Amino acid sequence: MKDTHPKFDIVIFGATSFVGQILTRYMLAQFPIEGELKWAIAGRSQNKLNELKQSLGIAGEPLDILVADSADENSLHELCSATRVVISTVGPYALYGEPLVKTCVALGTDYCDLTGEVQWIAKMLEGYEDQAKTTGARIVNSCGFDSLPSDLGVYFLQQHAKQKFGEPCSSIKMRVKKMKGAASGGTVASMTNIFKEVASNPALRKLLANPYAICPPDHGNKVRQDNMNRPQYDNDFNSWLAPFVMAVINTRIVHRSNALVEGGYSPHFEYNEAMLTGKGLMGGGLAAGVGFGLGGFAMAAVIPPTRWAMEKFILPKPGEGPSQDAQEKGFYDLRFYGTTDSGQEIRCKVTGDQDPGYGSTAKMLGQAAACLAQDISKENTPGGFWTPASIFGNQLITRLENHAGLTFEIID
Q: Any idea where the domains of the chain sit in the sequence?
């Protein structure tokens, strides 16, 4: 049985990972260890956890350390019994994530992560959603750059559409206007693992191609969605478009939100994402180049010899990532364009002030966990698998604007 009054509000599991270290330092800056929010760090290596704690200086001296391993169910049980919310940064989640989710669900412990692995979320839904509804565990996947800005950006636009027009948007496009950031070894490892799974299990291709792969069975939306996997021109943005690598997870989360948010968006909701590459021949050429590059990477990652060569000589290793300076110089600017059934139009933008995948992701993940611990009561929000928009809504938008360097703004 879990303690009804656990010692901690939040425990960061995988605190010594690349994102975990950034997150730990952000949490220390936002939430003093002996303050109102009680938090701790956890991982499988006592030595690495000690090194991380020592690197925090005097402010980190009171920080508690918990040792737990994904391969040791007893240690996970102790971890999840000691806290109200667990943050997991331990990926690839398809390889290491299930034991923690299983334990959180069994004990009724809340959980959030930054996974972008659709096939793994689908597996967790199938295996644990019904039990989570019984035990009261709130499981919230994809609380980093994938897919929080997309999911909350759509939610934000829909709220304003309802206020302004009295009806929601039945179609929304998200376009990446500008973005600067680098990939870490952890992200690359998750992506290449997906290609490994597809190569060994062709049935996964169908699941990954299904825009409603993680929607509830009774979601009812049968609209054919555009997966934006080829260069094309968008008259609404007056620009050529290139495929956006994060769309495969972001669109699935947004469609699940359509089924879960109070009142929903639309029973025939359309949503897609792409990158703006500019006008004219240069814009068209850049769009084609991005598409060719992503296709080439996918083909190389599916074939074992070329995948091995990329992992060995080209791609960053797990634990590697952009420098602190590069994170601070990173940013993103996402634009959303929505239309209602009656033809009304509305636009908004979502911006972030650091590298999207690391500096900004850590801040988003930390605030999502704090929101889950402090703002979303068990009495009003039952257990189950939620999306960021469906469980957090405006409460997290406020936190992100005040404490995480994001902006949400309606534009003319």
A: 8-144+359-392, 148-352
The C-alpha angle with vertex 275 and arms to 243 and 260, in degrees rounded to 5, equals: 80
Mean pLDDT of 264-275: 96
Q: Which pLDDT tens digit goes with each residue over 18-47?
A: 999 999 999 999 999 999 999 999 999 999
Looking at residue 349, its pLDDT comes to: 98
- Burial class, 326, CB count within 10 angstroms (exposed 0-12 / middle 13-18 / buried 19+): middle
CA distance 97 to 127: 13
The string over 286-296, giving b where at least 16 C-beta atoms fall within 10 Å of a residue's C-beta and e elsewhere, is bbeebbeeeee
Contacts 24+ apart (CB under 8 A), 157-163: 157/336, 157/338, 157/346, 157/347, 157/348, 157/410, 158/265, 158/338, 159/394, 160/346, 160/348, 160/410, 161/338, 161/340, 161/344, 161/346
User: Is omega for the bond preceding 147 within 30 degrees of 0, making it cis?
Assistant: yes
DSSP for 48-93, written as a single string: HHHHHHHHT-GGGTT-EEEE--TT-HHHHHHHHHTEEEEEE--S-H
- The residues pairing with 238 across neighbouring beta strands, listed in sequence order, are none
| Domain 8-144+359-392 CATH superfamily | NAD(P)-binding Rossmann-like Domain (3.40.50.720)
Model confidence band, residue 80 (pLDDT cutoffs 50, 70, 90): very high
Residue 391 DSSP class = H
Q: Tell which wins on pLDDT, 80 or 220.
A: 80
Residue 79: per-residue pLDDT: 98
Res 314 pLDDT > 70: no
Q: For residue range 45-74, what is the model confidence (pLDDT) as tens digits?
A: 999 999 999 999 999 999 999 999 999 999
Identify whether the C-beta of residue 228 lies closer than 8 Å to the C-beta of residue 274: yes
